[in-house]
Amino acid sequence: MKVIVKKGVLESIVSYTNPYLEKKDLSSITSHILISAMDGVLSIKATDHEIGLSYKNRNVTVIDEGYATANGSKLMNAIKGLEDDEITLETAGNSLFVKQKRSKYKLPMYNYTDFPEFPTIENKNRFEINSIILGRSLKKIFPSIDTNNPKYELNGALIDIKEKQINLVSTDTKRLSLYTIPNQTSTANEKIIIPKKAINEIQKLFSDKVEIFYDANVFLAVSESFEFFSKLINGKFPMYDKLVDTVYSQSVMLPRDKMVEGIKAINSMCDSMKITIKNNSILFESISEDNSEAKTEIETSIQIENQIEFSIRNKFLMDFLSNIEENSFKFDFNNEKTAFCVSSGDLKTIIMPIIA
Fold first, then answer.
1. Domain range enclosing 343
2. Are 273 and 286 in contact (CB under 8 A)?
3. Cα–Cα distance for residue pair 279/306, rounded to 1 Å
4. Domain end point (choices 209, 243, 277)
5. Do residues 168 and 159 make contact, with C-beta atoms less than 8 angstroms apart?
C-alpha cells in the first residue's frame, strides 16, 4: 500500500477514530487502526468490539492499493511530529512507514485480516429521525446517565419509541431526565438502550445527514464520510412513566439566570446546598462538613403561597440549567423529603433531595 495524504486530513481522521481503540491490551488487533486504500479512497477503521467507527476520505492520492494496521496512538504521535504538508503512508514487509521529506517513522503492523468485521445495515430497522435533533436531544439527558453501575441498563440512555412521541430517558437512581421528541415516523412500540460511551461519540459525529439503523443488538449510523456502530445494552430499563406523571402540590416559575448566579456563588465552597424559595427572593446556603459556610440571597419577583425549602447536590441542578435555553423554568414540589421536578420545554428532570 502506498498513499499520499495531507497532514490535516490524516490527523483529523486518526483523531476521530482513536477513542474507539482498545487501550488496555496492546497485543490485540483492536489496539490498532485498520487502514485501507482502495478505489481512490482512504479508509480508517477502529473498534474495541463494543463500539466502532470507519472514516473515509477521497482527498488523497492512492499510488498502490492495499491494507495496513498501526497502533493508533503511535500513529497520531508520528503525524503530530511532521510539518503541515503531504504525508506518505507506505507498507513494506510487516511495517508501515510514515514519511515526509527527510522524516520517517516505522510502525509495526498486525495481520489486517484479523481485524473484526463491522456490522452492516442489512436486515436492520431504519430509524427515520433527524440525526442532528437526536444528537442534541441525547446531549440534554447525558448528565443523568450513570457510570459503572452494576445494573448495566443504567449505564445508557433509553430510546422509547411510542406512537406519537419518542422519549429519551436516563437515570443514575438519584435523578431521572426525560426529553421528548415528536414521533414523525411509522415506527412505534420499540425500545433500545444506547451506552453512554456511544452517546458521547455521537455528539462529535451527528452534524451531517446521517441514516440510522438498529436491531435488538446493534445501533448503526451511516453518512457519506463515516460508518458508526455501537452494541446496545441488553437489559430492562426501569419503569419511569409513573414517576414523570407525579402530581405536585406546589408549582412556581423560577428565573434561570438568577438560579445559576446563586449556585455559582455557593459552588466554590461545597458540593451541596440548601435552597429556600420565598416571596421576592431565593436564599442559597452551603451544606458542609468542615464548618465552612457560604450564603447568598438573590432578589426576584416570585410570589408563592408557602415558602419552599429543599437540599440538593449543586451539580444536579446545574446540569439541568446548562441544558435549557429558556429564561425561566418550572419547579414542581411536594415536600423537602420527596423528589421534585424541574422542567423547561421538552426537558424534564426529577431529582431526589438530600435528606438530613
1. 246-351
2. yes
3. 9
4. 243
5. yes
SS3 state of residue 166:
strand
**pTM score:** 0.90
Say if residues 203 and 196 touch (Cβ distance below 8 Å): no
Same domain assignment for residues 212 and 279: no
- Please, what are the averages of pLDDT over each run of 10 residues along the chain (356 residues)? 97 94 91 97 97 96 98 96 96 97 96 96 88 92 97 97 94 98 82 96 82 94 94 96 94 96 93 95 91 92 92 97 97 95 98 90
- Copy the grid coordinates of residue 26: 496492546
Q: How far apart are CA 318 and CA 272, in angstroms?
A: 11
* Calpha distance 258→282 (Å, rounded): 9
The last residue of a domain, from among 92, 114, 136 = 114
- At residue 208, the pLDDT reads 67
CB 32 within 8 A of CB 121: no
